[in-house]
């Protein structure tokens, strides 16, 4: 600085005018993205989440098609081929009744995924209705409904499920019903929080001013805008439901033989793991892999919806 | 503060009452008497048995008697375990579960905090990514998979540990790992995200600019402020230890409460199921209440009046 001022006075030709074209300065350089495109971009660039997504896709495809194309089924006993190690014939080996473990593993995947997804959807359905009404109306309605949910929530989830299964016939339907009785509360609270935030936004007020009914505002305007956290909660509900099913089947309260489930297979596998470890390892591996995939995808989805959360 | 605690306590009692009533109704809704067995008993013996358990009285009287005994700490008599009192069974077995549970909780908090701190300090570097992937894996592999796999690899194959039992300090290692994996992962993620936030806050910058060494900043300033969410985590931690112990005590043949719970469920021993359910529920609710209180005590910024501290 000092040396420059010494070398001479400031002359006008040392300066060039700034381009003051207002059209240029207002130009948007980057392509316009809607919120959903933005979310998709963030999700696609998250490698871990995409790995999770691909694992999910592969597991689902195998669960659907492997039992169809396998030359064995999950329930036929073959007492001349019991406890076979994995081989060309039986890819994952066989169990103590000679049933093909490859077929059983994927039948188990069907059961686990079915329970996970149906339980998730039921939670979604009741959670949205209950939470939506609770959050939108607020005041006395909210107070009352919230108290009810709190009382129900304080009762430990797994105890309720176990109690119900003790007194009801064990079956897939029973498991799902039992899981849904208290499972929806979390979703309801998420929706409630969103509703309270969104209901005073301009578009909701505008809709109200135009004479829309409460139900229309809740389900046409507010719920679609709250879809982000709802989806994230849904993806994280599925692995916990899969876990609960495995846990219950492990305790002998879940699906009953000959239907396979990862939980029952692990339970059978534990009994014979010293001699036939593959009977434990295959269902254990795929159960963990599926839960891992749902968890990382759910995490990625949450980060994609709310980049502020990701630090 | 006192009003807040009292209010929470009232809700806890309501939930508990709800649960006890529901359990009682469910257990009595099961067709057939739990006293019937394969062995033919004379009518007189059957009547005497029913009188012994109070089953000859009308349901509402039974309910009243059960509630009255419950308040006095009497949970009834087991129907399958040679007329042992339920509270005695719980008392005898709970000490094993308690020891294992405490070891597991301490391990979870310590290891979880260390992993979380390392992650936060080496944010977006190798160590961070590594421990976070480890955390997702820990969250994804259910205890009913970790326990038998550890047992198979470390106790059966290498024989480094006892396969089952809980007699020497070394015996705690495998069950503790299996029981704590999920909580460690959860705490590590929690600590990491709050710690990163705290490390970016102004008071840390002040500490840095006055020349405090890096590790001192973490220990003196950041950690204390990052511990808050862990306090609210107590409820989840207890629930996790209890559900985990049900599976793990079964796998490692530990004569704890979880093992008796599984047994009572498969034996359909209704008084024992009810007793353990209520016992578990009380523990969980109390730890949730304590977590709520601790949260308010630890962080004066939380508004108590009307605010819902950590659901």
UniProtKB/TrEMBL annotation, chain B:
InterPro entries xref list: BPD_transp_1_N, MetI-like, MetI-like_sf
Keywords, alphabetical: Cell membrane, Membrane, Transmembrane, Transmembrane helix, Transport
Pfam family, one: BPD_transp_1_N
Gene3D superfamilies cross-referenced by the UniProt entry: MetI-like
PROSITE patterns assigned to the protein according to its UniProt record, in alphabetical order: ABC_TM1
GO cellular component: plasma membrane
Annotated localization: Cell membrane
TM spans (from-to): 100-118, 130-152, 172-191, 230-252, 272-298
Main location: membrane
Gene Ontology biological-process annotations: transmembrane transport
Boundaries of every ABC transmembrane type-1 domain copy: 94-291
Membrane topology note: Multi-pass membrane protein
Organism domain of life: Bacteria
Family (UniProt): Belongs to the binding-protein-dependent transport system permease family.
The protein's name in its UniProt record: ABC transporter permease
Classification of source organism: Bacteria, Bacillati, Bacillota, Bacilli, Bacillales
């Amino acid at each position: 600085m000092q040396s420059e001022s010494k070398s001479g006075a400031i002359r006008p030709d040392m300066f060039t005018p700034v381009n003051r074209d207002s059209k240029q300065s207002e130009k948007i350089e980057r392509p316009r993205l809607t919120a959903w495109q933005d979310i998709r971009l963030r999700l696609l660039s998250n490698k871990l989440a995409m790995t999770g997504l691909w694992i999910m896709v592969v597991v689902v495809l195998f669960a659907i098609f492997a039992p169809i194309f396998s030359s064995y089924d999950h329930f036929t006993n073959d007492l001349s081929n019991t406890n076979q190690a994995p081989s060309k014939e039986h890819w994952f080996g066989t169990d103590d009744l000679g049933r093909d473990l490859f077929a059983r593993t994927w039948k188990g995947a069907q059961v686990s995924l079915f329970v996970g997804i149906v339980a998730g959807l039921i939670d979604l359905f009741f959670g949205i209705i209950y939470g939506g009404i609770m959050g939108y109306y607020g005041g006395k309605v909210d107070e009352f409904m919230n108290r009810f949910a709190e009382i129900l929530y304080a009762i430990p989830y797994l105890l309720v499920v176990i109690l119900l299964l003790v007194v009801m016939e064990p079956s897939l339907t029973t498991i799902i019903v039992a899981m849904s009785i208290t499972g929806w509360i979390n979703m309801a609270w998420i929706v409630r929080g969103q509703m309270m935030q969104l209901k005073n936004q301009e578009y909701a007020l505008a809709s109200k001013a135009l004479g829309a009914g409460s139900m229309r505002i809740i389900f046409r305007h507010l719920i679609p805008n709250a879809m982000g956290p709802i989806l994230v909660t849904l993806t994280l509900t599925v692995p916990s439901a899969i876990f609960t099913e495995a846990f219950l089947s492990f305790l002998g309260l879940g699906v009953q033989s000959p239907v396979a489930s990862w939980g029952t297979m692990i339970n059978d596998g534990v009994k014979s793991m010293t001699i036939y470890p593959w009977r434990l390892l295959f269902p254990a591996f795929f159960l963990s892999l599926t839960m891992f995939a749902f968890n990382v995808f759910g995490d990625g989805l949450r980060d994609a919806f709310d980049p502020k959360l990701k630090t | 503060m006192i009003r807040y605690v009292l209010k929470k306590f009232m809700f806890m009692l309501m939930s508990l009452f709800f649960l006890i009533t529901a359990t009682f109704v469910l257990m009595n809704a099961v067709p057939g008497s739990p006293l019937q067995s394969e062995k033919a008993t004379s009518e007189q013996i059957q009547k005497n048995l029913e009188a012994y358990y109070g089953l000859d009285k009308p349901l509402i009287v039974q309910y009243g008697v059960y509630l009255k005994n419950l308040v006095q700490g009497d949970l009834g008599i087991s129907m399958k375990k040679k007329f042992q009192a339920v509270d005695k069974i719980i008392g005898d077995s709970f000490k094993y579960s308690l020891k294992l549970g405490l070891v597991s909780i301490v391990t979870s908090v310590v290891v979880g905090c260390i992993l979380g701190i390392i992650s936060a300090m080496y944010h977006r570097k190798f160590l961070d990514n590594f421990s976070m992937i480890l955390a997702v894996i820990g969250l994804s592999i259910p205890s009913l998979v970790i326990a038998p796999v550890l047992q198979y690899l470390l106790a059966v194959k290498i024989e480094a540990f006892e396969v089952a039992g809980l007699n020497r300090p070394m015996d705690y290692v495998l069950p503790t790992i299996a029981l704590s994996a999920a909580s460690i992962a959860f705490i590590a993620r929690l600590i990491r995200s709050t710690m990163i936030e705290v490390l970016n806050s102004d008071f840390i910058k002040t500490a840095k600019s006055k020349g405090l060494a890096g590790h001192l900043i973490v220990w003196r300033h950041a950690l204390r402020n990052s511990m808050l969410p862990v306090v609210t985590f107590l409820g989840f931690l207890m629930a996790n230890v209890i559900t985990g112990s049900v599976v793990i005590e079964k796998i490692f043949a530990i004569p704890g409460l979880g093992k008796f719970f599984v047994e009572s469920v498969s034996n359909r021993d209704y008084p024992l199921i009810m007793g353990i359910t209520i016992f578990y529920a009380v523990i969980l609710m109390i730890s949730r209440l304590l977590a709520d209180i601790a949260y308010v005590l630890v962080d004066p910024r939380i508004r108590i009046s009307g605010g819902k501290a950590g659901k």
